[in-house]
Design brief:
The protein has about 210 residues and is of the alpha+beta class. It has two domains: about 10-75 and about 120-200, no CATH class; about 80-115. The chain has six helices and six strands. Strands 1, 2, 3, 4, 5 and 6 form a six-stranded antiparallel sheet that branches. Helix 2 runs antiparallel to helix 3 (about 95-115). The longest helix is centred in the last third of the chain and has 29 residues, at about 150-180. InterPro entries: TraC-like_dom. This is TraC-like domain-containing protein.
């Protein structure tokens, strides 16, 4: 007997990504901020303590919840090695050819024993609001529940709620900056890319570029 297969979309709570804002099926909104990392091991003990205390104070001042997500993916090193091989072909000096070949062999041996990972850190900022009625498609939800100006009202409501959410984004970015952490809110295409990587964990990260 055949089983009833369900589309992947049914298990994903996201209804739409609009203007960089994630709209969930229950009407809640989410913004995603990309943050850089700090290598505490390179800092003195006093500096480490100062950063940790500043981050603790930042969290204690928040009056809304946040989620911090770390994404680790293996880096695809093969295109980098191919680019190095191409450089050997056009290199005129024999010494540089030998050095490049030795470097390629070193990279191959190193990556055979150690996985080179790239890490990305995200802060997910929520705004809970009943913006959309359940059991409505996205066009109905966003652009009108009833006749006679419903779409305009829905658009205004969305803009108001997005404005309040982006105020929270500003609070997060300022708080992270005080900790020495640079951050930026993701746009629509960047948010889509984040979700794509989440649901395609077997794929490697983008290639290393040679300048």
């Amino acid at each position: 007997m055949a089983l009833n297969a369900k589309a992947t979309q049914e298990f994903v709570p996201v209804k739409e990504i609009r203007d960089g804002i994630v709209i969930l099926k229950n009407g809640d909104l989410r913004a995603i901020v990309l943050a850089n990392s700090i290598n505490l091991s390179l800092k003195s003990n006093d500096e480490q303590t100062a950063v940790i205390l500043q981050f603790q104070n930042f969290l204690n001042t928040l009056d809304f919840p946040i989620q911090i997500s770390a994404q680790s993916r293996r880096l695809d090193i093969q295109p980098y090695l191919i680019a190095l091989e191409d450089r050997i072909k056009v290199q005129n000096e024999q010494l540089l050819k030998i050095q490049t070949r030795e470097y390629i062999n070193f990279i191959k041996e190193f990556t055979d024993t150690v996985s080179i990972m790239t890490k990305s850190f995200f802060v997910v900022i929520p705004y809970t609001n009943t913006l959309f009625r359940p059991n409505k498609n996205i066009l109905e939800s966003l652009f009108g529940w009833s006749r006679g100006g419903g779409s305009v009202k829905a658009q205004i409501d969305f803009e108001e709620k997005r404005s309040q959410l982006e105020e929270r984004v500003g609070v997060i970015e300022q708080g992270l900056a005080r900790c020495g952490i640079n951050s930026a809110q993701l746009g629509t295409e960047e948010v889509i890319e984040v979700f794509y990587k989440i649901f395609n964990p077997g794929e490697t990260e983008g290639k290393i570029q040679i300048n």
